[in-house]
TrEMBL record, chain A:
UniProt name for this protein: Fumarate reductase/succinate dehydrogenase flavoprotein subunit
Entry keyword annotation includes Flavoprotein: yes
Originating species: Streptomyces bambusae
Signal peptide: none
Chain ranges of the FAD-dependent oxidoreductase 2 FAD-binding domain: 10-430
Coiled-coil portions: none
Domain Fumarate reductase/succinate dehydrogenase flavoprotein-like C-terminal: 489-583
Keyword Iron attributed: no
Source taxon at top rank: Bacteria
Classification of source organism: Bacteria, Bacillati, Actinomycetota, Actinomycetes, Kitasatosporales
Keywords: Flavoprotein, Oxidoreductase
Automatic annotation (TrEMBL), chain B:
Keyword terms: 2Fe-2S, 4Fe-4S, Iron, Iron-sulfur, Metal-binding, Oxidoreductase
Protein name as catalogued: Succinate dehydrogenase/fumarate reductase iron-sulfur subunit
UniProt xrefs under InterPro entries: 2Fe-2S_ferredoxin-like_sf, 2Fe-2S_ferredoxin-type, 2Fe2S_fd_BS, 4Fe4S_Fe-S-bd, Beta-grasp_dom_sf, Helical_ferredxn, SDH/FRD_Iron-Sulfur, Succ_DH/fum_Rdtase_Fe-S
Cofactor(s) recorded in Swiss-Prot or TrEMBL: [2Fe-2S] cluster; [4Fe-4S] cluster; [3Fe-4S] cluster
Keyword check for Iron-sulfur: yes
Pathway connected to this protein: Carbohydrate metabolism; tricarboxylic acid cycle
Organism (species): Streptomyces bambusae
Lineage of source species: Bacteria, Bacillati, Actinomycetota, Actinomycetes, Kitasatosporales
Residues annotated as domain 2Fe-2S ferredoxin-type: 10-97
UniProt cross-references to Gene3D superfamilies, sorted A to Z: 3.10.20.30, Alpha-helical ferredoxin
Length: 636, 260
């Protein structure tokens, strides 16, 4: 029997990025004793990497903007597969969430009349992104962090204990959501520093763990993005939605190799940067798809005029949604018109004066100077697609962020699915974190209030704790011929990159499923040396379970969806098919879990989406809807 | 495309141990073109020392996790390019000296989180609803510079007030959190005074500003290039001076004119 410490909380939030911290603030302000648990230090979450801004239709720069326009842009970007109620709530509530940050001390860049400035971004009709230079994510995380400290200071005044009602367990990992019957009862965790196990008992758990990019070789994501929340939900019995949709950001660094995949912000293009191939041609003009034809400039001259006069000109095609730009770059490279290191050129040096570049894009200037020895004010950057974001995720109720079928389990941020449909617009991620982080914290607190005080508070039984401890310790007891977790991870990343990457084919994805099966068998024998104190090899061995589960979801769903839409491109099914519009692909865990590691873990189910509410459909022209909606939907 | 053709073997000395003690260990490891020190540490983990403890996250100089001392100088491992060293050089990596070691290159940085809690938060102005805040860019520029801070704590590590003087830690917030006081003090809408909170005075009396003798070590190690001494600490000292005479302010105002 494993002796582990147990603590009781009302709400446990897993993850301390934007969504997790916003959820924690909300839960605590609504009276719930709230614990946050995160793998990194407090304030280091991957949210800091977000550069461009927070999309919110405040209308500070163009007063024609409003939530309806934002909703429309979001649905178009997601190719109408978005969970429309989420897109509606998101567009309506984003401005309040941004303004609230100001009251917590955030300092956004300003307009001449002193309001929050807003910048242009791909897929957004009006300048909409509240920003701080190109370090908006850092401002967001720091503001939320400092708000949490303020709440802790308040608690200290009242109780003499900073952590009485809101505590951060930093550098800890959750390996299991624990349950009492079908209800959430807590989480099983280990301290990364000591390897010590502990249990946080709580009737409500919010998963806010971010994405899955570490399953791919070229990614902008940090080591934390191992699909933990996705896997925790599955293992607790909650299904995932539309996992085939993965956003490859068009502009990641391609050189030098050690920084391959690191993001080059879209603001470079929003502020005037252009994409060229090795022949010097601005190739994006050749890649405007028919659904977007009327919205984008047809000549370089018109595109260039747009930066000065957006009322009378159409935007340049460099600002198409990310999936379109990523595919275009991929095609150029394949056609032999790429840059020396296998990307294309992104040039801002010939477009803006050096001092303007340094002022508007300080982090990018810094990043290229320091990491690639490239001066972006004097020469073009080399960029190419990088795995950036997963649109798919845990299936949730739009209003409450509650997962399906596991009472007490909530999800918000990148780990939740639905909001972005098949493709996310830049800037919609930070606003998503705030809007749904708050909603998850709110409803988790309510759920906890209904269960925490009563006799039916869910209990954690010892058998589950013992099982979780045994599972976590398995890598130390590997037999002879143990597999190196680093090797397994590299092989997984290579397979996903090559076979389920930006362009997909049926045969390759079947091959991928075969490789995943073989990797599962080998991962069951993953072994590590040393002890439990700060042992990164051990941590990786445990993360492999999550990455393999999530990768299986991605490959299965991608194989099933025989069309191309947003972040899912099938070379063998190249067009978007209207009859696929109302179809969600849902990944359920195989239950009971098969003993044989070679057996599939995931059961894929097709589910029809809820019809889009008529007043929301009425925001679009009939001619546009005809391009997206399935035949039968048009007559409903 | 690989860079293997340009690879070479580099010699590293890395401190390994824990709170009980430890020692520098020698490693020889392959280096490829364009790599940074953190890449090499990762290669060591994957090939020679699976349990080598290191803290890191974004690997792009934005999160401030991978702070260490490289050849004795506080730096981010992800932003230190291997090309800045000669191939013959042995590169030494040690944990941050000002903080207790947990294991290998990982230190206990809780000092910083304690200090963060001692600085009273932003006080929102009364009578302004969310969405009604109006500030000019020129007025937010100053605080925005300080908010570029990625909390790598290199300035806290290098500051000699605490680097070799454990006894000063209780009374001294360190450059990062004195800068936080300055940031709030310069925030155009911070209403601390309406609550009877004088941030300038607390900088001196509660956060140990007087210990700072403006040697600018913090500014030198800041990976974000924030002018911590010139733009945060000296103005804070100047603002405090009408309440309390500080001879260093005179010196500081001389030095601060040497801006580039």
């Amino acid at each position: 029997m494993a002796q582990v410490d147990r603590q009781q909380w009302d709400v446990v939030v897993v993850g301390a990025g934007g969504a997790g911290l916003r959820a924690a603030i909300e839960a605590r302000e609504r009276g719930a004793r709230t614990a946050v648990i995160c793998k990194s230090l407090f304030g280091k979450a991957h949210t800091v990497m977000a550069e461009g801004g927070i999309a919110a239709s405040m209308g500070n720069v163009n007063s024609a903007d409003n939530w309806q326009v934002h909703f429309r842009d979001t649905m178009r970007g997601g190719k109408f597969l978005n969970q429309w109620r989420m897109a509606e709530l998101h567009a309506k509530e984003a401005p309040d969430r941004v303004w609230e940050l100001e009251t917590w001390g955030a300092l956004f860049d300003r307009t001449p009349d002193g309001k929050i400035s807003q910048r242009n971004f791909g897929g957004h009709e009006y300048p909409r992104l509240a920003h701080v230079g190109d370090r908006t994510g850092l401002e967001l995380i720091r503001t939320l962090q400092q708000k949490i400290v303020q709440l802790q200071q308040q608690d200290f005044k009242e109780s003499g204990d900073h952590e009485a009602r809101l505590k951060i367990f930093q550098e800890c990992t959750v390996t299991r959501v624990l349950k009492d019957g079908d209800k959430v009862a807590g989480v099983f965790c280990y301290e990364r520093e000591s390897g010590r196990f502990f249990v946080l008992e709580a009737p409500a758990v919010v998963l806010a763990t971010g994405g899955i990019g570490k399953s791919f070789k070229t990614t902008s994501n940090s080591w934390e993005y191992t699909g933990d929340g996705h896997a925790l939900a599955l293992l607790a019995g909650a299904p995932l939605l539309n996992m085939e949709f993965i956003q490859f950001h068009p502009t990641g660094m391609v050189w030098p190799p050690s920084v391959k995949g690191i993001l080059v912000t879209e603001s470079v293009r929003g502020d005037g940067g252009v994409l060229r191939n090795s022949e010097g041609k601005r190739f994006m003009f050749d890649y405007v798809p028919s659904v977007f034809k009327e919205k984008y400039a047809e000549t370089e001259e018109e595109g260039d005029r747009w930066y000065e006069d957006q009322e009378h000109n159409r935007r340049p095609p460099e600002l198409l949604p990310r999936d379109e730009v990523a595919r275009a770059i991929n095609s150029e490279v394949k056609a032999g018109r790429g840059s020396p290191h296998g990307g294309v050129f992104l040039d801002v040096s010939s477009r803006l004066p050096a001092e303007v570049i340094k002022r508007k894009l300080p982090s990018m200037y810094h990043q290229f100077k320091e990491l690639a020895d490239v001066d972006i004010t004097a020469e073009p950057m080399e960029v190419g697609p990088t795995c950036h974001y997963v649109m798919g995720g845990i299936a949730v109720d739009s209003d409450t962020a509650a997962t399906v079928g596991v009472p007490g389990l909530f999800a918000a941020g990148e780990v939740a699915g639905g909001m972005h449909g098949s493709n996310r617009l830049g800037g919609n991620s930070l606003s998503d974190l705030l809007v749904f982080g708050r909603r998850a914290g709110w409803h988790a607190a309510e759920h906890a209030a209904a269960h925490a005080a009563t006799a039916d508070r869910p209990a954690v039984d010892q058998a589950q704790v013992d099982a979780a401890a045994a599972e976590a310790l398995a890598p130390f007891h590997a037999e002879d011929g143990a597999e190196n977790p680093y090797t397994l991870h590299q092989e997984l990343q290579q397979s996903m990159n090559d076979l389920v990457g930006i362009i997909r084919r049926e045969g390759e994805m079947q091959q991928a499923l075969g490789r995943l099966r073989a990797l599962r068998v080998r991962a069951a024998r993953a072994g590590v040396e040393g002890h439990r104190q700060f042992n990164p090899g051990w941590h990786l061995a445990l993360d492999l379970r999550n990455m393999l589960l999530v990768s299986e979801c991605v490959a299965k769903a991608a194989l099933e969806r025989t069309e191309s839409r947003g972040g899912h491109t099938r070379e063998d099914c190249p067009s978007m098919e209207r009859e696929w519009r109302p179809v969600n692909l849902v990944c359920h865990p195989v239950d009971p879990v098969p003993a044989d590691p070679a057996a599939d873990r995931i059961r894929l189910v097709r589910r029809r989406t809820e019809p889009i509410r008529p007043d929301l459909l009425a925001l679009f022209e009939k001619e546009e809807l005809v391009k997206y909606l399935a035949e039968e939907e048009l007559y409903e | 495309m690989t860079a293997t053709g340009t690879g070479y073997d580099a010699r590293f000395r890395i401190w390994r141990g824990d709170a009980e003690g430890g020692e520098l260990r020698d490693f020889t490891v392959e280096v490829h073109e364009g790599e940074v020190v953190l890449d090499i540490v990762h290669r060591l983990q994957a090939t020679q020392a699976a349990d080598l403890a290191v803290r890191w996250n974004c690997k792009a100089g934005k999160c401030g996790s991978c702070s260490a001392e490289i050849n004795g100088r506080p730096r981010l491992m992800c932003m230190t390019r291997m090309s800045t060293f000669s191939r013959e050089e042995t590169i030494t990596i040690t944990p941050l000296r000002a903080f207790p070691v947990v294991r290998d290159l990982v230190t206990d940085v809780s000092f910083n989180y304690t200090k963060a809690r001692e600085v009273p938060a932003f006080v929102p102005p009364q009578g302004l609803a969310p969405g009604e805040y109006r500030m000019q860019q020129v007025d937010v520029d100053r605080s925005q510079e300080f908010r570029k801070c990625i909390e790598c704590f290199l300035c806290q590590d290098t500051c000699h007030v605490v680097r070799d003087h454990e006894e000063n830690k209780a009374a001294f917030a360190g450059p990062r959190f004195l800068m936080r006081v300055a940031e709030l003090d310069m925030h155009p809408l911070d209403a601390a005074e309406s609550e009877g909170l004088d941030r300038k005075r607390t900088a001196q009396e509660e956060h140990g500003l007087g210990y700072c003798n403006i040697t600018k070590c913090c500014t030198e190690v800041c990976p974000e290039g924030i002018k911590i001494t010139d733009n945060a600490l000296i103005p804070l000292k100047e603002r405090a001076v009408d309440r309390k005479y500080d001879p260093l302010v005179w010196l500081g105002s001389k030095i601060s004119r040497r801006r580039d």
